[in-house]
Design a protein that fits this description.
This protein is α+β, with helices and mostly antiparallel strands. Helix content is about 40%, strand content about 10%.
C-alpha cells in the first residue's frame, strides 16, 4: 500500500492445490486399488516407483506432462488415465515423421487402425496371404474383427484407406497397440506381419 499508494480493498483469489505426481521417479507396477473413506468406497490408480536413469529422463517426463496438459488439464485417477499419458510419453521418443498428426485422444489406436486399413486395402503386411486363404475379405467382417480386438473401425475408414498408400513402421509401439494387433493376428489373421507396423528396434 505504501509503495504503490494503493487503497486497502479485499480481493478473493482461488487457489489450486496440485496433488499430481512430480515425475522425479519412474512409475512401475501400475494398478488400481479400492478403499473406503468416510463410509464411501473409492477406486484410484496407484504405482510403485524406481529411480530415474538420469536428469534427461526427468526433463523428458516433465516436458511431456506439460505438453499433455496444454489444452485441457488432466488429473490421473484411473489406470486408463495413466496408460493414456504413458502412451503419449512413448510417442515423444519417436521421430516427428511418425508422431505428426497423432491425436492425443486414443491417437495410437487410431494410427494402428489407419495403417491396418491401408495394409488390408493394398494387400500388404501379410494381407495378401490372408486374402489368398479366405478368398475374399468382407469389409463388415474386417471391421468387426478390429472391434473385437479393441480397435474401433468403420466402413468409412476402409473407404478412406482406398485413397492412401500403406507406409510401414508408422505406428507407435506400446503395450496397448501390441496387445491389440497380436490379438488380431492370433484370433483372426495368423498371416499378419505385425512387425511391419512398428519402428525397427535399435541395435545400438
Amino acid at each position: 500500500m505504501v509503495t504503490h499508494d494503493a487503497d486497502f480493498v479485499s480481493r478473493n483469489v482461488e487457489k489450486h492445490l496440485r496433488m499430481e505426481f512430480d515425475w522425479k521417479r519412474t512409475p512401475s507396477n501400475i494398478r488400481e486399488v479400492t478403499f473406503e473413506f468416510n463410509g464411501r468406497t473409492f477406486t484410484h490408480v496407484t504405482f510403485d516407483t524406481v529411480p530415474l536413469e538420469n536428469l534427461d529422463q526427468f526433463q523428458n517426463y516433465r516436458t511431456a506432462w506439460d505438453d499433455y496438459n496444454k489444452k485441457t488439464r488432466c488429473c490421473i485417477k484411473t489406470e486408463a488415465d495413466f496408460l493414456q499419458f504413458w502412451a503419449y510419453v512413448e510417442t515423444k521418443k519417436l521421430p516427428r515423421s511418425i508422431t505428426s498428426y497423432l491425436s492425443r485422444q486414443n491417437g495410437i489406436l487410431k494410427r494402428l487402425k489407419r495403417d491396418l486399413c491401408r495394409a488390408m486395402k493394398s494387400r500388404q503386411a501379410g494381407f495378401d496371404k490372408v486374402i489368398a486363404r479366405c478368398g475374399k475379405l468382407r469389409h463388415e467382417m474386417f471391421c468387426d474383427a478390429l472391434h473385437q480386438c479393441g480397435i474401433p473401425c468403420t466402413i468409412d475408414d476402409l473407404d478412406y484407406a482406398n485413397r492412401c498408400v500403406f507406409t510401414p513402421r508408422q505406428c507407435v509401439d506400446t503395450a496397448t497397440a501390441r496387445q491389440a494387433i497380436e490379438k488380431l493376428r492370433d484370433t483372426f489373421y495368423p498371416e499378419l506381419e505385425i512387425d511391419l507396423f512398428f519402428p525397427e528396434l535399435s541395435t545400438a
